[in-house]
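Give me the 3D structure for LysR family transcriptional regulator.
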Amino acid sequence: MDYFAAARAFVCAAELQSFSKTANALSVKTSTVSRYVSELERDLGIALFNRSTRGLVLTEGGRLFREHALLALQALDDAREVTSSLNRTPQGVLRVTMPPAFGRLHIVPHLPAFMARYPDIDFDIVSTDETLNMIDAGIDVAIRTGVLPDSSLMARRLAPHRRIVCGSPAYFARSGTPRVPGDLAARDALRVPLVQDDKWYFTQVTADARASQVQEQVLVELQGRLRVDDSEAVLALAVAGCGVALLPTWLTSTALREGRLQHVLPEWEARTGRAEPAVRAVYPPKKIVSSKVRAFVDFYAEAFGEPPYWDDGLALEPQP
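Predicted structure for LysR family transcriptional regulator (320 residues):
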């Protein structure tokens, strides 16, 4: 007996509740469908259908077998699709959403190379800081930075999302360079709006701290006159000497290299929450990721590198 053919015939018959309709759907004889089901029932030692004048009705055993047969058939179909897709050229429209600042700096500059490599992929880009419902918005893949909330979406980490405490050299010359996280409580912090109890979390990253099983964590309450909901605006204000900021290195790397920003507290890893942030590609939960999404995600993981190119040459680690 061809078990997979028999299982397909059974599953189809369970749905259509008729051997003759199943035969038409599968382009086989009605006797073939009946034989497949009879062979399955013999093999399992249990009746799968109750026959009546109204059609086929699954027995308890039939319902149980159908549930598991569907999973097995889907797994076989998935295996065929994944394998055959290896020789399939990625193509079609790829709808992508991304945060405006990160997209301008690190997605758009690489698009010409991606489109040259994959000439059959067209783009529809939605640039927004809003977290869109990917299913409702028809999004194929989203680039998200920071902490990913719990969800049913699939995600792949593309790069770290490392934040550093920074400010202009003029600001630190005027207000003093902080030596420990607690010093920030007396500085002007550039903060996020609509967060009344905004805090920065610090974990020591010296060699001695890494060797310790319990790492010291410090929580700093912030104060300051400015609250801004745009990371590029915070960067501009920090460069202008308006206060101290906690910004990602993918945004600050150029200003750091040019000396317009100064990184302070390099012995401490800073976060806006306890969870670990990252740059991730997020896509809807499917058993098979489309070739165009897989091509996009693989390309940008390679383009960013490990560690990411924006951290290259920056003295981000504490010196021994």
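The CA atoms of residues 123 and 143 lie 14 Å apart. Let me know if you want a second pass.
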